[in-house]
Design goal:
This protein has 311 residues and is of the alpha/beta class. Helix content is 41%, strand content 14%. A 5-stranded mixed beta sheet has the order 7-6-8-5-9. A 3-stranded antiparallel beta sheet has the order 3-10-4, with helices on both faces. Strand 1, helix 3 (47-61) and strand 2 (67-70) form a beta-alpha-beta unit. Helix 13 (279-290) runs antiparallel to helix 14. It starts with a helix and ends in a 5-residue tail after the last helix. The relative contact order is 0.17.
């Protein structure tokens, strides 16, 4: 995950300028009559993160919270300590990746392919840090395997297990280390029984893989599940129906001190985003920002309105 986000750091620095800004005046009042706490929303330096930060910020602002944005802060090595220290109050995270980051030795819990189990383990690891992981979305940002729409239609492919009977007629493309990696070709063989006719070493979910798919040099390619090219190129993301990949579902992580100041409205609002954030919805927003060059703020606002989460 860190590698993929690093690939886009230059893009973010060049094309996305987000300043730390908050609403004017003081925070609003909750239904119980108590003042709503001010909120600082942070993000790493990756366009998907900035859009997610806008979703969180705008739904809170739409419900009377004063929000300060501290986006594009850098890698997780910067953002997670900022969350712990109170420099920010909320950020969007990825269950398995964050658990591996905060519990590097796996002494508390290890990431699994089950999001609920991984969320439970992550919460145990976050308890000493006074942080809470809220509801996770269906949307993920993890290894995925895609085919062109023509290939999917011709061979009736919807899920990875559909590849097992015909894998020996197909060429897989991905990063050079893929054949020996448990979440790439090796995992496809061990979990799904898929053996490919050939493997073509390319890049890690990047332009070489996309070009090879379009040029029919490969039949199946490794991309990240939230890659904007899936929508832009009309690729078909095959369902990981036997759960090969670790659960990197997206979820907000919040400081306990902020939740304790609130009457439960903030938690409900953030969870309402997770409830509606599907893989397709996330990928479409990523495509609008990364490919169409739309502004993350406008994309987030349009999505929240479409979902009926803000007016």
């Amino acid at each position: 995950m860190n590698l993929r986000r690093a690939l886009f750091a230059a893009f973010v620095a060049a094309s996305v300028v987000i300043t730390a800004c908050g609403g004017a005046g003081t925070g609003g009042t909750s239904p119980s009559g108590t003042a709503k706490p001010d909120v600082i929303v942070g993000s790493t330096n990756f366009y998907e993160q900035i859009t997610l930060g806008e979703l969180y910020s705008q739904i809170l602002e739409g419900n009377g919270y004063k929000v300060t944005r501290k986006f594009n802060l850098g890698a997780r090595e910067i953002v997670e300590p900022a969350l712990e220290s109170g420099q920010i109050d909320i950020d969007a995270e990825y269950l398995a990746t964050l658990l591996a980051f905060v519990d590097k030795d796996g002494k508390v819990a290890k990431p699994t392919t089950d999001p609920k189990e991984t969320q439970t383990g992550l919460q145990k690891a976050l308890d000493p840090k006074a942080l809470t992981v809220l509801d996770f979305a269906a949307a993920t940002d993890q290894n995925g395997f895609v085919v062109t729409k023509d290939t999917a239609t011709a061979k009736n492919l919807k899920k990875l297990s559909d590849l097992a009977p015909i894998g020996n007629t197909l060429v897989l493309g991905g990063p050079p280390e893929c054949p020996t990696r448990p979440f790439c070709a090796l995992g496809l063989k061990n979990t799904y029984g898929i053996t490919f006719k050939d493997f073509k070493p390319l890049d890690t979910g990047g332009p070489l893989t996309i070009t090879a798919l379009e040029g029919k040099q490969i039949d199946v390619g490794l991309l990240f599940t939230s890659d904007p090219s899936i929508v832009a190129k009309n690729f078909v993301l095959l369902d990981d129906d036997k759960h090969l990949q670790l659960a990197d579902n997206i979820a907000p992580v919040v400081r306990n001190s902020l939740l304790q100041k609130d009457d439960g409205t903030l938690k409900r609002l953030l969870n309402s985003i997770s409830a509606k954030l599907t893989q397709g919805e996330l990928n479409d927003m990523n495509k609008q920002v990364a490919v169409d060059k739309a502004d993350s703020k406008a994309v987030a606002a349009a999505w929240l309105k479409k979902q009926g989460l803000i007016k």
